Amino acid sequence: MSDSKLAGQFFDAAIGLLTRVRDEEAESIAAAGAAVADTVEAGGRLFAFGAGHSSLAAQDVVYRAGGLALMNLLTVPGVVGVDVMPAPLGSALERVDGLASAVLDSSPLTAGDLLVIVSLSGRNALPVEMAQNARALGLKVIGVTSVAYAENTRSRHASGGFLRDHCDIVLDSKIAIGDAELTAPGVEAPFAPASTVVTSAIMQSMLAAAVEQLVARGVEPPMLRSGNVDGGHEWNGRVMTENRDRIFYRH
């Protein structure tokens, strides 16, 4: 069987996007890493939020091998994954006004903490209000989004604003509107989304920059090891115990 032409095209598209982000967002990623390091050094807590498939990149930095132990997932019932039934309900909840406020009011977030909000379009009420309200509470907010949506679509929030308008730092994923990299004869809709690949890379690069900053400041970053290597469980138990006041995925 010969190699798939379309599979190769997807890799090329993803690599092209990753290269663009690496080159064009380097300064913003470094700034985001410094903000994370500032929060860690000051004793603050770290949170990540995403709705729908944007939640995948948020989940990817929480409680994982090679990850920063202090990163917590901020969850909103019904919007975190496609396990919600019916699945379109999650998309509908992203457009509900006031939901973000209710979530933040019942969350452990407080002034001095940092929240990373992942939203590809950044146009729905939930991520926009989440950013607005988090900043009003005194949090540092980092938005990971595609600026193309803010430039070429209409906001679904009453203010007319997008996620990027309410963040301290914005990381642009460069994903085109529609999030599909390929077309082919006989297929009526574009296909092969690359946002998860690119956004997860942005998140990991941001945390790598944070680790670099912490080490330069003489602060040991609390990292997690794989539980599938010898000594991993013991290592993680110690790290989580030492930082239990800033970790919320254990209780």
Automatic annotation (TrEMBL):
Signal peptide: none annotated. It comes from the Bacteria. PROSITE patterns: SIS. Pfam families: SIS_2. Residues 36-221 form the SIS domain. InterPro entries: RpiR-like_SIS, SIS_dom, SIS_dom_sf, SIS_GmhA/DiaA_subfam. This is SIS domain-containing protein. It comes from Streptomyces sindenensis. The lineage of its organism: Bacteria, Bacillati, Actinomycetota, Actinomycetes, Kitasatosporales.
